[in-house]
UniProtKB/TrEMBL annotation:
<comment type="similarity">
    <text>Belongs to the COX16 family.</text>
</comment>
<keyword id="KW-0999">Mitochondrion inner membrane</keyword>
<keyword id="KW-1133">Transmembrane helix</keyword>
<keyword id="KW-0472">Membrane</keyword>
<keyword id="KW-0812">Transmembrane</keyword>
<protein>
    <recommendedName>
        <fullName>Cytochrome c oxidase assembly protein COX16 homolog, mitochondrial</fullName>
    </recommendedName>
</protein>
<keyword id="KW-0496">Mitochondrion</keyword>
<dbReference type="GO" id="GO:0005743">
    <property type="term" value="C:mitochondrial inner membrane"/>
</dbReference>
<dbReference type="Pfam" id="PF14138">
    <property type="entry name" value="COX16"/>
</dbReference>
<dbReference type="InterPro" id="IPR020164">
    <property type="entry name" value="Cyt_c_Oxase_assmbl_COX16"/>
</dbReference>
<dbReference type="GO" id="GO:0033617">
    <property type="term" value="P:mitochondrial respiratory chain complex IV assembly"/>
</dbReference>
């Protein structure tokens, strides 16, 4: 009987350690970018973009007169 109690207690400590290692590895993979890294990753390469300019660019490329409503698939439909 004591063997099983020891197995349960020891197993919980082992699982705790494995979980901590998993969380540490996940945190190392995802990290916050600082401003310089974010600017390097963006396609503008540090160029300032005003909201009005971005709106005009998007509005010129949109065709709001000819559009089609597309329904996404539902889990219960095939």
């Amino acid at each position: 009987m004591n063997f099983f109690k020891g197995l349960i207690v020891g197993g919980s400590f082992a699982l705790k350690e494995f979980t901590e290692i998993k969380i540490k590895r996940r945190d190392e993979k995802t990290y916050r970018l600082n401003r310089e890294e974010a600017l390097k990753a963006l396609p503008n390469k540090g160029r300032e973009v005003l909201i009005e300019e971005a709106y005009k660019d998007i509005a010129q490329n949109l065709d709001i007169d000819h559009w089609e409503n597309k329904r996404g698939p539902r889990p219960w439909e095939e």
